[in-house]
Amino acid sequence: MKFIKWLLALVVTLILLVTVYLTVFFDPNDFKPEIVDAVKKQTGRELVITDDLSWTFFPVIGINLGGVSLSNPEGFTPKAMLEVNKAVAEVALMPLFSQQIEIAELSLDGATINLVTRKNGTSSFDGLSGDNSKKAATPAAETSSNAKLNDINIGGISITNTQINMIDEAKKQTQVFTLKSFTLGEFALEQFAPIAFEFSATMPDMTVSSEGKGELKLSRDFTQLVLNGLKIDTVVEGESIPNKKLETSISLATQIALDKQQLSVDIAQLTAASITAAGKVGVNYATKIPQINADFQLGDIDLDTLLPKTETAAATEQAPAASTPAVEPDLSALKQLDVKLKLTVKSIKVANLSTQNWLMDVGIKNGVLDLTKLNADLYQGKLLVSAQVDARQAVASYQFDKKVTGVQIRPLLKDAADVDLLAGTANFDVKGKGRSLIPEQLKKNLLANGHFDINDGALYGVNIPQMIRSAQAKLKGDLSPETKEERKTDFSSLTGSFSLDNGVATNPDLAMSSPLLRLAGKGTANLLTEALDYRLTTSLVSSLKGQGGSDKNALAGIDIPLAITGTFQKPEYALDTKALLNNQLKEETDKAKEKLKDSLLKKLGGF
């Protein structure tokens, strides 16, 4: 027992002697010139320490410093790259003898970092590494790998009022990032410690403010880092932001396998504007290009509320936008991605077009984006799409295969393009390929082939039976006003195939059937000018009974030409009356010839 008392007394005495020696005979400020000279020799920068360094002792040993600045390269503005108002580092003394680190306090206050990029491309980082940095790193790394710590305990870490100014002289832009506060509570290995932060950023086109809190745990072997219950709220504001303001909130848990360089994130809830989501993300960053696997489930998405509002025509006329040549989008970032994404969405509304129950599988690798599957419910029907975008060249190429089945075409056209042209149950398939993602070039370069059929529908904007009756009456000399009837032509089926080349869709085999008439023809639709040019032939089955006609019709069996011109928005329909008259006269002439032939045969005795 006495031995222990004597041992403790000896340890205390040694500590007191060390303390007296350090305070009386060892002044850390004596080493400031040497520290300044070493930094100058290593980096070529000026290090300034204006405040006196001071010791702290038992039960903790530490050092306080302030008024520290490190210069930018010569000729840079601002002159200082780093300025620190106050820094404190204190370590518990006794646990060090047991290979344990107990940090009583680590704090940094009032740090300012000025990172400048000049017009000639030089930056604040130039020259910082020094010639001996790599040589010095090797033994340090070896020492750290051989060192072994039994435990780490941190009383707390606090970083406040830290500001990073990123200055680009070529663009004449300054971005300011401010870490208002970061705190780590009492920390020990294998135990959760609370963390919290408050951050803001000011950029030329937006401002960002964010705050978050959660808890952190590090395994004893330093291979597993866990962030649990992390909740981050962020507000982004700017003219380029949808509705000029976007608020987001995310709750997640993260596990990082430091030895395997793998990260997994479990997102319990994510909200951005009116969009809600949940999902999981896995990242393997041990490879040259990190491998990312993600699976997200999203709720209802209304993109129309997020897109910029369209200016009125009057406003556009008063302030016409400057005409700038379109350029290909830069998709080079796809080459640095290795991503697999599975996405389900409850509903998506965009450009007033509504879809439900999305299921999508996407892969990105080596600059190629593969949409292997996209299924969705579309206006009481189904949508199935597969596609690929190849961004390995400066001008991207693409190919796709799209099928639509059982879709109600009238509400689809009205919502998508405000066109009231067709009704019925539509089936549609198209395969295509092309190059360039500039909107106008998309239309010009797209090569596609497809087929469509619409059943139990109607053609709106034209009443073909009424047009025929009106033309027939005029041919007989009846010039009385036309009766007003609904401009609609019912049909049982409308079918055709089409090809798309140089922005023009060609339909060579349009066919429409109904109990009253048959329609066949061909034509084109120009996607660049939206011009229609169709030449059709209509023939009556027997009569127009049921649509205002008599039981028998003189035009039954006669081909009646019909032209469709105008645009997608305003199609124009017209009967070719002259061709109709010629067809009727030919029919009457043929009948007269038959009568004359029969008469002659009778007179000749049947020869």
Characteristic terms for this protein:
about 600 residues, alpha+beta, 30-stranded mixed beta sheet, about 20% helix, elongated, disordered C terminus
Report on this model:
The chain is an alpha+beta fold. Helices cover 18% and strands 50% of the residues. The chain contains eight helices and 30 strands. The chain has helices at residues 2-24, 32-43, 133-146, 313-318, 409-417, 439-445, 464-475, 577-603, and strands at 47-49, 54-56, 60-71, 80-92, 100-109, 112-117, 151-154, 157-168, 173-184, 187-188, 193-203, 206-218, 224-237, 245-257, 262-272, 275-284, 291-302, 338-350, 353-365, 368-378, 381-390, 397-408, 422-435, 447-460, 488-501, 504-513, 517-526, 532-540, 559-566, 571-575. The chain has a 30-stranded mixed beta sheet that branches. It starts with a helix and ends with a helix. Residues 7-26, 131-148, 311-321, 546-552 and 603-607 have low confidence and may be disordered.
